Amino acid sequence: MEKRMADDSLDAAPIRDNAPTNPGRASLGHDGHEHGERCGCHHEHGHDHHDHDHDHDHNHLRPPKYKPGILLAAFGVAIDEARRGYDLFEAEVRQRHPDMELAWAYTAHKVRRKLVSRGRECDSLAVALSRLHDRGVTHLAVQSVHTTPGVEYHWTREQALAYRHPRKGFPEVVVGGPLLSSDHDLERSCQALQGYIPAERSPDEAVVLVGHGTYHHGQQRYLDFEERVRRDDPLIRVGTLMGRPSCGDVIADLEAEGVKDVWLLPFMCVPGHHVHLDVFGSGASSWKSRMEHAGFTVRGHVTGTLEHAPFRAIWLDHLDEVCARIRALETA
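Predicted structure:
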């Protein structure tokens, strides 16, 4: 059985709820409408002040029965040149699913605020969900563009599924998992490293992959990934800006190995603020500075996993799976 996070299914199945929206109203002789919103169709219903929302059988008001959409949910980036990975991913998504409405959402509020301060439009997950619903999307595939099933992924999943409702939201919502969702993803990501690590790296040089990290048990996937890659290459280490293994942990481990030369690479979707400052920055607290201070010769490669096709393919396959389930509902 393939190992996944214990508490949750990463590729969430559509949640079906056949219970009445408000059971018991019919027994009170009510007409079945929800009060609180103005209808605007000016029908005679036998009572005054008809302020409620219901579905009249008019072509001009009838929503589409099936209009599929895709929402790509990413941490976000405020550095323009770092968007390359997102742009490459979007182009492939559009190529695979040209008939589906497409939107992005950034889950990091600091990134959104920075972009808004520059006059750039940037939707949160809640805003993007509302916009897609306003555009008439009925069946939504939400694809996590995160690395692990940590806080950002679970926040995305919870918000997306909260918008599932037969009338007030999307009749169906399906969520695709992040990069390292399953053991099979770990295997594929391990293979993807072959083209991610610079070709000029020699076998006696260590490679340190720096992820973002999370204060969630999804952090375990970084440890699982390191365990897997070290079977093939004992000098690869995976550390995280948040949580363990920390920079200090990695330095101590490499010192014990007697390594002198290190390749430092981000293990994040795109090379944004964290990569430029926390990994390669000139400040004393950056990973590069700390490793050099410890006596290592450090070479770096500023990139992101979304810039490399083998990694993108994993996310794309997750998206294809959830889109297939959305499409199957068209004739269900």
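Summary: Strands lie at 34-35, 52-53, 68-74, 101-106, 139-145, 172-176, 206-211, 236-240, 261-266, 297-300.
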